[in-house]
Specification:
NADP_OxRdtase_dom; Aldo/keto reductase; Aldo-Keto_reductase; 6 strands; 11% strand; NAD(P)_OxRdtase_dom_sf; six-stranded parallel β-sheet; 10 helices
Length: 300
């Protein structure tokens, strides 16, 4: 996402190099969406992975409009999927997510439309993003939901209330923003120091009052990470990897160096004492709402 949306200007060639380096390091799951540049991100991902497409899983999403409204009408889904196949340069999308629940379209209609593509061999698996228990169950009854994607990190733990439903139905979970949109990297700076177009300028966690508390928590987490020979980013990702084998975080970056750092998290082993120390530092997540202006999704 960061190549084309929400984090200020990015260098597409550097981003493609980061994707290719990730593959070299054993990363096999790559996440994009129509929303990320309205096709430009999918095209970049397609170019980046063309040489090893059959070795990886590609996920993309439908459901937003250009003014950040929702549109999951069946005809619109069909249009977006055909575009995504063309932009990515693939015959099949491995995971197709509804990016956000559209309250104006019955989820059964959405699931049924995705099922058409699965039956036709153009999509392999159906995913939901930011959906709640009722929506998940209703969709699952029409077309099995393979995975739910929602924000989850040391800073954002509310989604833990949904995990029992996923366990019951055998649904995997993909945490997005597992590094707290960059706060859990040790590189956070005050909101007004980010460029125009960077969402962190208005993110509540970066606003005065919350920012200082979050910064202190990251300092304490950094000290714990360093005691284990790790970075704070690696600690945050390693913590998510202790949540379960079916939980697969997707840290985003435009940097080869950060890709190398992030993949190193798989080798960080956390003890019960480490997990207890982390819970003491951030027992309920970070300080500040997820989104400004009441835009945080409500799960139903």
């Amino acid at each position: 996402m960061g190549l084309h949306l929400a984090y200020g200007p990015g260098d597409e060639q550097e981003g493609i190099a980061a994707i290719r380096r990730a593959h070299e390091l054993g990363v096999t799951f790559f996440d994009t969406a129509e929303l990320y540049g309205w096709g430009e991100n999918e095209k970049a991902v397609g170019r980046a992975v063309a040489g090893f497409r059959d070795e990886i899983v590609i996920a993309t999403k439908f459901g937003f409009t250009r003014d950040f409204g929702f549109d999951s009408r069946p005809d619109h889904i069909r249009e977006v999927v055909e575009n995504s196949l063309r932009y990515l340069g693939v015959d099949t999308i491995d995971v197709l997510y509804q990016h956000r629940v559209d309250p104006t379209v019955p989820i059964e209609d959405v699931a049924g439309t995705v099922k058409e593509f699965i039956d036709a061999g153009k999509v392999r698996y159906f995913g939901l993003s930011e959906a709640g228990p009722s929506t998940i169950r209703q969709a699952h009854a029409v077309q099995p939901v393979s995975v739910l994607q929602t924000e989850y990190s040391l800073f954002e733990r509310d989604v833990e209330q949904l995990l029992p439903v996923l366990d019951e139905l055998g649904i995997g979970f993909v945490p997005y923003s597992p590094l707290g949109r960059g706060f859990l990297t040790g590189a956070a700076k005050p909101a007004d120091q980010y460029t125009e177009g960077d969402m962190r300028r208005t993110d509540p966690r970066w606003q005065p009052g919350n920012y200082e508390k979050n910064l202190d928590a990251v300092r304490r987490l950094t000290a714990l990470a360093e005691s284990k020979g790790a970075t704070v980013s690696q600690l945050a990702l390693a913590w998510l990897l202790t949540r379960g084998e079916h939980i697969v975080p997707i840290p985003g970056t435009r940097s080869v160096r950060r890709v190398e750092e992030n993949t190193g998290a798989a080798d960080v082993k956390l003890t019960d004492a480490d997990l207890a120390a982390i819970d003491e530092i951030l027992p309920d997540g970070g300080f500040g709402e997820r989104y400004a202006g009441g835009r945080t999704p409500t799960w139903i």
